[in-house]
């Protein structure tokens, strides 16, 4: 396991990246997505951050916090229930109209249930949609917005057990 000091050293090295990185956080209003967005904003120069989620009230608090951490950051919220693929497509289109590239796609949206199948309005199982279809759709939808050779980054992570390391 990587030590906390190694993580902090790596985070500090992010300052050497070019200014104006564009990052999309799907499920970035809580948990590991939020903590990662916070550290990216803290450790980069003039980042553009898109938070995609359902909770606009929570997102407005997070946006205020991130702008306080880094006054040169541009932070936006796109309110979407990404268990619906049409909403994923809409979010991708919205970002593509504003950005020529996406440097980081960080996906931690998830759904935990012990009951059986829970269908979305599109007829898909909600858990499977969030853990598979949504991730594939964002990956395919954002790949055209990737940077030039060596400039893009893509991360598709499943949220898991995490611990507040502050």
UniProtKB/TrEMBL annotation:
UniProt-listed SUPFAM superfamilies: NAD(P)-binding Rossmann-fold domains
Keyword Membrane: yes
Alphabetical UniProt keywords: Membrane, Oxidoreductase, Transmembrane, Transmembrane helix
Protein's name in the database: Uncharacterized protein
Residues annotated as transmembrane: 20-37
Pfam families documented for this protein: adh_short
One of the record's GO molecular function terms: oxidoreductase activity
InterPro entries from the UniProt entry: NAD(P)-bd_dom_sf, SDR_fam, Sec_Metab_Biosynth_Oxidored
The organism of origin for this protein: Neocucurbitaria cava
Top-level taxon in the UniProt lineage: Eukaryota
């Amino acid at each position: 396991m990587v030590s906390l000091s190694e993580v902090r050293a790596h985070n500090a090295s992010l300052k050497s990246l070019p200014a104006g990185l564009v990052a999309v956080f799907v499920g970035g209003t809580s948990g590991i997505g939020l903590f990662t967005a916070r550290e990216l904003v803290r450790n980069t120069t003039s980042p553009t951050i898109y938070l995609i989620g359902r909770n606009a009230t929570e997102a407005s608090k997070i946006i205020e916090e991130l702008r306080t951490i880094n006054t040169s950051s541009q932070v936006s919220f796109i309110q979407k229930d990404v268990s619906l693929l049409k909403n994923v497509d809409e979010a991708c289109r919205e970002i593509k109209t504003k950005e020529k590239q996406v440097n980081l796609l960080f996906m931690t949206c998830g759904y935990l249930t012990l009951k059986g199948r829970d269908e979305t309005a599109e007829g898909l199982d909600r858990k499977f949609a969030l853990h598979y279809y949504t991730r594939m759709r964002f990956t395919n939808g954002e790949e055209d917005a990737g940077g030039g050779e060596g400039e893009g980054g893509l991360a598709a992570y499943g949220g898991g057990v995490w611990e507040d390391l502050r």
